[in-house]
C-alpha cells in the first residue's frame, strides 16, 4: 500500500494538495484576495461584501496578467476575456 502525503490549505480546509508548494501558492492567493476585498470595501462606496470578494478573487487569480496590463500591455486583459468565452462555446462538427 502506498502512502500519499496531503497538504491542506490553511485558509480553505476543504482543499488538499499533494504538493506543498501548490498549497502555499493557493494560500497566498486566498490571502491576496481577502486583502484586496477588504481594501475594495473600504475604498468603493456602495460595493457589497459579495461583490468585493468576487472582484478580490478575480484579481488574485489573474495577478500576473493584471501586472502585465499595468506595465503597459492592457490588451492582455482582453485575451483573458476571449479565452473564457471560448471555454463556454461547444464546438460542433459539421456533417459531411
Description:
By secondary structure, this protein is mainly α. It has a domain of 56 residues: Arc Repressor Mutant, subunit A. Helices cover 59% and strands 4% of the residues. It contains four helices and two strands; from the N terminus they run ββαααα. Strands 1-2 form a two-stranded antiparallel sheet. Strand 1 and strand 2 form a beta hairpin. It is flat. The termini are far apart.
Helix and strand layout, with pairings?
Blueprint: E1 7-8, E2 16-17, H1 20-43, H2 49-61, H3 63-70, H4 76-87
Antiparallel strand pairs: 1-2
Largest sheet: 2 strands, antiparallel
- The topology string of helices and strands comes to EEHHHH
CATH T-level fold name of the domain at 20-75:
Arc Repressor Mutant, subunit A
Q: What's the Cα radius of gyration?
A: 18 Å
Mean pLDDT value: 86
The helical percent reads: 55-70%
- List the strand order in the largest sheet: 1-2
Number of helices: 4
State which percent range the strand residues make up. Answer: under 5%
- The helix-and-strand class reads mainly alpha
CATH class division of the domain at 20-75: Mainly Alpha
Query: What is the total tally of β strands?
Result: 2
CATH architecture assignment of the domain at 20-75:
Orthogonal Bundle
> Per the principal axes of the C-alpha atoms, what is the gross shape?
flat
Low-confidence stretches: none
The rounded distance between the terminal residues' Cα atoms is 51 Å
Amino acid at each position: 500500500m502506498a502512502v500519499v502525503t496531503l497538504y491542506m490549505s490553511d485558509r480553505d480546509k476543504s482543499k488538499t494538495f499533494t504538493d506543498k508548494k501548490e498549497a502555499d501558492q493557493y494560500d497566498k492567493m486566498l490571502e491576496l484576495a481577502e486583502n484586496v476585498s477588504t481594501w475594495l470595501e473600504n475604498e468603493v462606496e456602495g460595493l457589497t461584501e459579495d461583490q468585493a470578494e468576487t472582484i478580490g478573487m478575480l484579481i488574485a487569480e489573474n495577478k500576473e496578467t493584471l501586472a502585465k496590463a499595468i506595465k503597459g500591455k492592457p490588451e492582455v486583459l482582453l485575451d483573458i476575456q476571449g479565452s473564457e468565452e471560448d471555454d463556454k462555446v461547444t464546438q460542433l462538427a459539421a456533417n459531411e
